[in-house]
Design goal:
The structure holds 3 protein chains of 3 kinds. Chain B is mostly helical. Helices cover about 50% and strands about 10% of the residues of chain B. Chain B has a two-stranded antiparallel sheet with strand order 1-2. The chains are: A alpha/beta, B mainly alpha, C mainly alpha. Chains in contact: A-B, A-C. Chains A and B meet through helix 9, helix 10 and helix 13 of A and helix 2, helix 3 and helix 5 of B.
Chain lengths: ~650, ~140, ~60
């Protein structure tokens, strides 16, 4: 950043508009403003800070030029503006802070304060930045600014014994807080993640997988058993068939077996028929609910009827018909009526109340259907009774058939020829086994079906658990990353602090050795671990407490310039009365060397400071010189350029 | 519900969903234990039992949608629900507001389903026969 | 001094370098541009992105 010019309007001592250019040449990089005390040097310095950062203008009302203020009538406004043009990295900027003050009863009212930052592009057109404060901070951060725009009065404080200003300065310019925060935030985040991992971790997935395996084994077993049963059932049936055939073949048992065969067929048919009837009954009962609606239907019917009677639903009377009547103002019976007649009103009310065609239709529909509902009830119930009876009879029949079958069994067991009795006994056993198997088969089937459902369930649970595992893996990774990063920053931080300290120490020493009067007996400049600046004398003792004001100022100056060098920021050194306590050789040394330490140097000095050695030493490097002339009569200062002969 | 596009669903309380399920699941294979062919049949029965008891309860708990309006039969279910709604409120205009008719039905069902469970599932015999008994008893 | 910092970062574990550099840069931004809040949130996002990358969860697939 290099300042190019400044323009003030009604700012402090500067009445109306005052301009000044800053020198931007490389060799003539010094711009000087000199004047008597109170002439306005500090005001100019404040103007720069106020314009760019709104600093130093605590009470705006006091900033406005008194003359302009006095010349303003009550109720009128007076502007106060500071404009600064500067270049930064090849781009040209115009920063302006403007305030409109309204004079209300002699008290200034701040109407509007605005900060704009415009950038001139290579094409030549100027565009205002949408985020002026942000861009300004990107050019030169606000917290670093005090080390570039430096108030000479404060220089002393910097290196006074017990001051922590040096430490503050180093921390700010080197952005050490950024590292500290990085470490602390990373640690905070790592701790958070660690807690979350602990909370979420579980052995859920393991348990689910074990459970699933277990279910699969059960299913395997069940499938196997089902196959076995199928086979046994098949065999059982064959065995029974076999015996039946033998019985059919035997003269003694033939008749009984034939009878039994036909009984079995009947029983089979009956069972099929039973199933059918049950399904029919099922359907019937579903539809039989209307049996409970007798009362509701009756009531609904009455309501619908009532409404129709009261003429609220024009039954059969068309809406259009009524409209026609109303228009022609003739009653149905042919008699004319006038408006507001009772009949007219009644018709109009009917028309309003009568809902649209939709209701008419729905009502008709519903009335019809309600009638059908009761009909439905009757038919369903009667058929239900019928079918129930049928079912009962069928069951009874089947009972009898079973009884008959038992009887045949007994008879066959009694026949001794052809080993009929034994055959029948065997048949009995086979049948029992067969029926047991059938029952078990049914159970196994339903068991398999249930296991299948459970497996589907478990799969769903597993998917959820697996997702959770992935989440935990991610959390774990994040925790590890955050922690490693925090540890890394901790390492870097220590090293960086140390390197920083060393470099600042070295650079400060370097500058100090340039600025200090050679006769001074200093040996070394140290910046210790706590960032305290010390000058070591030739006897190895720290001398800070014994440094003269002038020497301390030089130390401060050295430090400031060292900082501005190392900060990596490109900005001019703007100093307000930097030579206040310097004199003689000290002043000479500083004046000679200061311009080389910065790309652009802007100084606000008293006449005395300028007159002394500084003039001879600084003038060769000065590109612009201004004198601040205070006019006793007006109470205002004029900036007037000083030209060389 | 002639004007309904069939896009809306009937709701029940979440905590009775299991009752509806067990009474209608696999109704073709197990007619005796799951007597109702569809969930809407369970619903209709729950509605009329609620009507019979003269009580209805607004749905408050977590709700669950179980089937669409278009499942109702035009010849039986729809007129029944309309008659019930008109008898309950006396408001014929309801015929144009199907959603209100349904809300009334849902509230009756919400009450009736409790008794359905008691009568059909909590009894020793199988559900279908308990249901037949209920019909018989009403005659 | 920025170079010094970068030098130190280069001495770290390669998998951490980018993350640490980004975090420090974010903190500097927030410091300089006077943004009061939200930096922790942004750092969490950075960690999230790097962790997912490490686990190969980003669509680009695998390490760079």
């Amino acid at each position: 950043m290099k300042l190019e010019y400044i323009r003030l309007i009604n700012f402090r001592q500067f009445h109306k508009e005052q301009l000044a250019d800053f020198s931007t040449a490389d060799d003539l990089n010094v711009t000087v403003f000199h004047g008597l005390n109170g002439a306005g040097k500090t005001s100019l310095f404040i103007a720069i800070n106020w314009c760019l950062y709104e600093e130093g203008g605590a009470d705006i009302g006091m900033l406005v030029n008194k003359k302009a203020w006095a010349e303003t009538a009550i109720g009128e406004t007076v502007p106060m503006v500071v404009t600064i043009g500067f270049i930064h990295r090849g781009a040209r900027y115009i920063a302006e802070r403007a305030v409109m003050l309204k004079k209300a009863e002699n008290v200034p009212l701040n109407l509007k304060a605005e900060f704009t930052l415009s950038r001139t592009k290579k094409t030549g057109d100027t565009k205002p930045e949408p985020n002026p404060i942000g861009v300004m901070n990107a050019i030169l951060p606000s917290n670093v600014r005090p080390y570039f725009f430096f108030d000479g009065e404060k220089m002393d404080d910097l290196t006074k014994a017990g001051s922590t200003d040096v430490q503050e300065a180093v921390r700010n310019i080197m952005r050490l807080p950024a590292l500290e925060r990085a470490e602390s935030h990373l640690q905070q985040i790592a701790d958070e993640f660690r807690r979350e991992v602990k909370k979420k971790g579980s052995h859920e997935l393991e348990t689910l997988i074990t459970h699933e395996q277990d279910l699969r084994e059960q299913k395997e077993k069940a499938l196997k058993r089902r196959e076995e049963l199928k086979e046994e059932i098949r065999i059982g049936r064959a065995q029974i068939e076999d015996i039946d055939a033998k019985l059919r073949g035997s003269e003694a048992a033939k008749e009984l077996q034939k009878r039994r065969d036909s009984i079995d067929r009947y029983i089979q048919d009956n069972e099929i028929r039973e199933k059918q009837i049950v399904q029919i009954i099922q359907k019937l009962t579903n539809r039989s609910y209307t049996i409970f609606l007798a009362e509701s239907c009756k009531k609904a019917f009455e309501i619908l009827d009532q409404k129709r009677e009261r003429g609220e639903i024009p039954s059969g009377i068309r809406e259009q018909f009524i409209k026609d009547l109303l228009e022609r103002k003739i009653c149905v019976c042919g008699k004319p009526f006038i408006e507001h007649d009772e009949a007219f009103e009644h018709l109009r009310t009917l028309l309003k109340r009568s809902s649209s065609k939709d209701i008419e239709n729905e009502v008709q529909h519903l009335t019809g259907n309600i009638r059908l509902l009761s009909l439905n009830t009757e038919t369903q119930i009667s058929e239900l009774n019928q079918r129930s009876k049928e079912l009962a009879q069928l069951k009874e029949h089947t009972e009898r058939l079973y009884a008959e079958s038992d009887d045949i069994k007994r008879q066959l067991k009694g026949i001794s020829e052809d080993k009929i009795a034994e055959l029948e006994k065997m048949r009995g056993r086979f049948t029992q086994k067969y029926e047991t198997n059938i029952a078990e088969f049914g159970k196994t089937e339903s068991n398999i079906s249930s296991l299948d459902n459970q497996l589907i369930d478990i799969r769903k649970q597993r998917d959820i658990a697996e997702k959770k595992e992935k989440e935990i893996a991610l959390l774990s990774q994040k925790e590890s990353l955050a922690q490693k990063a925090a540890d890394a920053v901790n390492l870097i931080k220590e090293e960086f602090f140390e390197e920083t300290r060393k470099e600042i120490e070295a650079t400060t020493k370097d500058v100090f050795s340039n600025l200090a009067w050679k006769q001074d007996h200093f040996q070394d400049v140290r910046l210790d671990q706590d960032f305290r600046l010390e000058v070591i004398d030739r006897w190895g003792m720290t001398t800070r407490k014994e440094l003269s004001a002038g020497e301390r100022q030089i130390l401060s100056l050295s430090f400031i310039t060292a900082m501005s060098k190392l900060s990596g920021e490109e900005a001019p050194l703007v100093m307000d009365t930097p030579f206040g306590r310097l004199s003689g050789n000290h002043l000479t040394a500083v004046a000679q060397n200061l311009p080389s330490l910065t790309p652009q140097l802007i100084l606000f000095v008293t006449d005395r400071e300028w007159d002394e050695a500084s003039k001879t030493n600084l003038e060769p490097r000065t590109g612009q010189q201004y004198n601040l002339c205070f006019n006793e009569k007006t109470g205002c200062t004029e900036i007037s350029e000083v030209f060389y002969e | 519900m002639s004007s309904v596009k069939g896009s809306d669903r009937v709701s029940i309380e979440e905590n009775v969903h299991d009752i509806y399920k067990s009474l209608s699941e696999k109704s073709a294979q197990n007619p005796e234990s799951a007597p109702f062919l569809l969930m809407k049949d369970v619903f209709m029965w729950a509605v009329v039992i609620g009507v019979k008891n003269g009580k209805r309860r607004p749905l408050t708990e977590v709700k669950r949608e179980i089937f669409r309006w278009d499942q109702f039969s035009q010849d039986l279910d729809v007129p029944a629900l309309r008659a019930i709604a008109i008898a309950e409120t006396g408001d014929v205009e309801l015929l144009l507001r199907e959603d209100e008719i349904l809300r009334i039905a849902e509230e009756f069902a919400n009450e009736g389903i409790k008794q359905i469970k008691k009568e059909l599932l909590d009894q020793p015999a199988k559900a279908l026969w308990n249901l037949v008994d209920i019909v018989r008893y009403q005659q | 001094m920025k170079e010094k910092l970068l030098e130190l970062i280069k001495q770290l574990d390669p998998e951490l370098q980018e993350l640490v550099a980004e975090v420090i840069e974010k903190e500097r931004e927030f410091l300089d541009y006077l943004k009061p809040r939200g930096v922790v949130e942004e750092i969490r996002d950075l960690i999230d992105r790097h962790a997912k990358d490490d686990l190969g969860l980003l669509n680009q697939g695998g390490r760079k």
